[in-house]
Amino acid sequence: MNRHIVLRAVGQLIVMLALTMAASVGVGALLAPVEGRNASIEIRGWAISIAITLAFGILLIVLGRMGAGQQKARSDTIMLRKEAVAIVGIAWLACSAFAALPYLLCAPSLRPDQAWFEAVSGLTTTGATAIVDIEAVSRTVLLWRSVTQWLGGIGILAMFVLVLTGIGTSGRKMFGAESSLHSADLTLANLRQTMRSLWLLYIALTAICGLGMLALGLTPFQALCHSLTTTATGGFGTENDSAAGFSTALKLWIILFMTICGISFPLYLTMLRKRSLAPAREHEETWWYLGIIAASSVIVLIEHEVEQFAEAPVDIVFNLVSIITTTGYATGDYDAWPLLGKEIILLMMIGGGCAGSTAGGLKVSRFILWLKFCRIELTRAFRPRLVMRQTLNGRPIPEGAMGQLLVVITCATFFFVSGSLLLHIFEPEASSVGCLAAAISSLGNIGPAFADYGPTKNFASLSTPSNLLLSGMMILGRLEYVAVLVLFSRKLWRHY
C-alpha cells in the first residue's frame, strides 16, 4: 500500500470540504436576513470548524508529499486498485468527522455522537436527524445540512478526488466503489469528461428544481435548501413539518424531481448525447422503477378509498415516491396508514431507486438480476445444458454479477439483523418494529422509519452507542458494504 497517495488524496478532499464550508457560510449569511427567522451566523463556531478542517487537510497533503519524495519503490503518481478502494472508505469516514464540526461548535450544539450522526446522515443522503426544533437552527447550519446532502448525492469522491487527480482505471474503480454505477456507464467519454457531464447535469437539474420552487412560493433560502436535497434525494428540509405545509403544486413539483433523480444519470447523458429517447426504451430498470411507483400508488389509493382514510391523493403519492427514491420528505404520517400501505412502504424502503441515480436502497436493478438468475436456475432444473443469454438494460450481464449480487444481499441481510438486534439492546424502551425499521432505514439511506422513528418523529432520543451504530450502517449502505469492510482486511495494508 502506498500510504502517501492515500494521505495526499484524503487531504485534498478535506481541503475542498473546508472551502465548501466557507462557501456555505457566505451564501447562508447573504440569504439568512431575508428569512426573518434565526439569521445568526455564529462566526466563531464556523471559523474554528473551517480552520480545523483546512489545517488538517493541508497537514495530510504535506505528509503525503514528504513521504512520496522519500519513497523510491515506484512513482507516487501510480495508484493501484487497493489504494483507490482504501481512499473511498477512509475519505468517507474523515469527511463525516469534519462535516460534524459545525453541528458541534454552532447551534444547536449537539453532542459529539449526535453531530457525527447528523453529518453522516447528510453525506449519505439519509435525512435522519437528531435536531428537535429545525426552525430554531441558524440558516447557515441549515444550509450546510443541505449542502452535505447535495455533495453526497452523486458522491463526494466523484466531485473532489477524481477531479483533482484525474487518474484513469483507478479513478473509475474509486467512483464505482462509491456509487452504484456499472463500469460500462463510465465509457461515454474519458473519465474526467464523463464526470464533468454528470455534474453539469446534476447542477442543471438542481437549478431548474430551485427556480420552480421559487416560482411556486418558497423563499430564496427555502428554494435553495430544498432544491439541493430534492435532487440529492436526501430529505433535509428547513421546516419542522417537512413538506406537509407546502402547496399542492409545490408537492407535485417535488414529486417530479424526486422521480427524475431516482433514474440513472448516465441514461440521461446517453439520451442527450444521442439526442434520442431510444436508450430509455431499452433501459428496463427505469420501466420497472416507474411501474413500481405507478402500481404502488394505485394499490394504496384504492386501499385508502376502501378504508375511507382521509388523506389527499397527492400526499399519498408524495410519500410513496419519497420512500422509493429514499428522499425521506414527508407530508403526513404514513405510519398511520392501513396495513397494506405500510407493507408497501416497507418493500419500497428495501428496493430503492435505479443504479447510477442519487437514490439509495438495494437498487431496482439488483432485484431484476435476482429474478433473472432465479429463472435461469429454475429452467436448468429440467434443461441443465441450456445456455441462456441474459441482458440487463440492453447489455449482457457481466461475469461475476451473481457473486457481487450475493455479497451485497448477504451483507445487507447480516447487518440488518445484527444492527436491529444491537439497536434493541441499546434502546430497550424502543419497540421492536421501530428498531427493525430504523435498521432498514439506515442501511437504505432513507431517513424516516416506523413507530418510534416514524415520519413525524426524529432520532434525537438515541443513546451514544445507537448513534454510532446507525451512523456506521448509513455509511455501509451508502458505499454498498465492500468499500468499508475491505478496510478491515490486513492484506489491504500490506506493503508491496
Summarize the structure.
The chain has a domain at 3-189. Helices cover 65% and strands 1% of the residues. It has helices at 3-35, 43-70, 81-99, 101-105, 112-123, 139-154, 156-159, 161-165, 169-178, 191-215, 220-231, 248-261, 265-274, 278-282, 284-307, 313-324, 339-351, 364-380, 401-426, 432-443, 464-478, 482-485; strands spanning 391-392, 395-396.
Fold and architecture overview:
The chain is an all-alpha fold and 496 residues long. The chain has a domain of 187 residues. 65% of the residues lie in helices and 1% in strands. It contains 22 helices and two strands. A two-stranded antiparallel ribbon has the order 1-2. A hairpin with a 2-residue loop joins β1 and β2. α12 packs parallel to α16. The longest helix has 33 residues. The radius of gyration is 22 Å and the shape is globular. The mean pLDDT is 88.
Termini separation comes to 6 Å
Q: Could you say which overall geometry the principal axes of the C-alpha atoms support?
A: globular
The biggest beta sheet reads: 2 strands, antiparallel
What topology, given as strand order, has the largest sheet? 1-2
Helix/sheet category: mainly alpha
**Helix-residue proportion:** 55-70%
* Beta-strand content bin: under 5%
Rounded radius of gyration (Å): 22 Å
Compute the average pLDDT: 88
| Strand elements, count | 2
Number of helices: 22
